[in-house]
Amino acid sequence: MSGTDRIRRLVPLLIIAAVIPAQGEGPLFVGGPLDNEGVPYRWTINPLTYWTDLGNLGGLTNTQANDLVQEALRAWQDIPTASMNFTRSGALGADVTISNWAAVVNAIEGCAPLDPDGVARERSIIYDTTGDIIDEVFGPGNSDSILGFATPTCLTSDVVTNAFTRGYAVMNGKNNPSATELKAVMVHEFGHMLGLDHSQINVECLGFFGCPDNDSAAGLPTMFPILVEAGEMTSPSTDDIAGLSALYPDPSFTTTTGRITGRILFSDGLTPTQGFNVVARRVDDPLTTADESKRTAVSSSSGFLFTGDNGTPLNLYPGLSPSPYGSRNQDLIGYYEILGLPPGFYTVEVEAYDSSFTLGSGVGPLGALGIVFPMPSATCPDGEFLSADESNDDLCADKTTLTVNAGGQISTGTDIILNGTPPRYDAWESGP
Amino acid sequence: MDYGRLSGLILRTMKSFLPTRATPCSFLALVAATALLPVAAMGEALTRPINLAFLARRAEIIVQGRVLETRHEGLPNYPNIRTVVVTLEVERMWRGPEGKRYTFRQYVGPHGWRQAKAGYAAGERLLLFLPRPSSYGLSSPLGLEQGHFRIVRNRLGEDLIANQFGNLGLFKNVPETAERAGLRLDEAQLRVASTPRGAVPLRDFTSLVVRLMSLPRNE
């Protein structure tokens, strides 16, 4: 079988094999063959205008809620290496309640011109004062667990960009959440509205009691799939900063930060693999009390620009067409790209996505399908580092240090060969 | 490809990707946590962790069954609001209306493909903790992924169950809640309730659910 054929067969079988993968804090949507292929979707309106609801939000008055929205958006706007500003254009046409939410969402998602005398606006921030709207959308009682939801919608494409044209967010005010918790939810949900996917950094924070130490908490991304540290998740981490800056770069982004690019490969050293989390961590400085490796880390998902649904022969969803999203360029299957690294010394590691991160909480093109891969080698269950002599039988803890310079890119010697995979996909497919 | 073959293929390919020293239990837990793909679905929602006591107390419908059919369509009168209509062949209605089938409609968000693909697959066995339908006829599992469980049979013929979070945090504080309410849990129920994450035996799980169903409903 030729290499190309092998890769063609690899993709659907990878999807079948599943256990969860994801893409670091990458784009939520990437253009497919009918769009600008391999180009992330983003907003092309700047400043991005938005409209807010007329009611209260939990214990907050309407004015306080509006201020909190502004504060949450400012968390993204204030990122110096990104260029995205926000302007409140006014209020929605009426208070959104259980009596009109469906009409509002139906109008927004219809993508047709909106009635200027209607309630909906292109970017609507809806205050679900007591959780009643969430109970209508998801069923009574779900307002006790769903904190909010948001999405960009009405995707368009021209010869240059893939763009969102509308979006909406619903914030749940039931049970009078604290301003800190509400802000964390807003920052996270607005991140999605801006086109950011979930991200996995410092997965040890998934324990019963949250992050085990302050360093892990400090590096926890706002776009972590589960709200575990509201206080920390109100402000973007290095990973969040890199994600937003990649979508909306300020000119300083490419001159003040560095990047590492490479591929994740099967043990044959040739076959690329999609759906693993690749993390660059700053080398800990022994002269400080902080652990910089947990505080300064940026992730990427291998194959984050590639489609998660490339013609799999399995038709689990009759009547649904293949995904319109993601590139079909096979060179991108195992490709990772870690951007926005402050200059310094870094290690690079590859790890599995946590098996709790699937579908709605998934990361990357495969995570959204509920697919997660474990690390293949018994000797490296928690992941393996990029080593100076990268091979399929190197020690998982054997790591090399890369020097990242401002404006620099490291793209050679950065491929990681996974230990313990079958040598060829055929062997995997027909294995016992 | 029929579903039986699909399950076999998933098991085979996953097995070949597992550590050679993985135990049968870890393998099966992995399969149960991830294998049969699709699930619930709202894409970009953020949820608060909830435990099994909450689910058992608050769900209006607790149904165990096999997905017979899924249909993706707009919400009646609001065609741009995308929903999936799921029909289950009921194996056991733990709480809810009697009948051989149970059908519900779930909101799936605006991105038809992304969320729809993350929907329900015909043939898979589920246990769902659902609210009653809203006035628009919509219901999603409580806590979305947290109230949506898949059942997978291992090679020993034992049924295992895990929700879409891989049961992460599902049993946190459950024994304490039961004790406060004066409910005595047996050894198997306590063993399940001490699981930090990962799939657990269906029989013990449902036994625990039934016990917790006697908790006051609205606390």
What does this structure look like?
The complex is a heterodimer of chains A (432) and B (219). Chain A is of the alpha/beta class. Chain A has two domains: 224 residues, Immunoglobulin-like (Sandwich); 154 residues, Rossmann fold (3-Layer(aba) Sandwich). In chain A, 23% of the residues lie in helices and 20% in strands. In chain A, the strands form three sheets. In chain A, strands 1, 2, 3, 4, 5 and 6 form a six-stranded mixed beta sheet that branches. In chain A, strands 8, 9, 11, 12 and 13 form a five-stranded antiparallel beta sheet that branches. In chain A, strands 7, 10, 14 and 15 form a four-stranded mixed beta sheet that branches. In chain A, α2 crosses α5. The N terminus and C terminus of chain A are likely disordered. The N terminus of chain B is likely disordered. Chain B is an alpha+beta fold. Helix content of chain B is 29%, strand content 28%. Chain B has a seven-stranded antiparallel beta sheet. Chain B is globular and about 50 Å long. Chain B is built from seven helices and eight strands, in the order ααβαβββαβββααβα. Chain B has a single domain, classed as OB fold (Dihydrolipoamide Acetyltransferase, E2P). At the A-B interface, α1, α3, α4, β5 and α5 of A face α1, α2, β1, β2 and β3 of B.
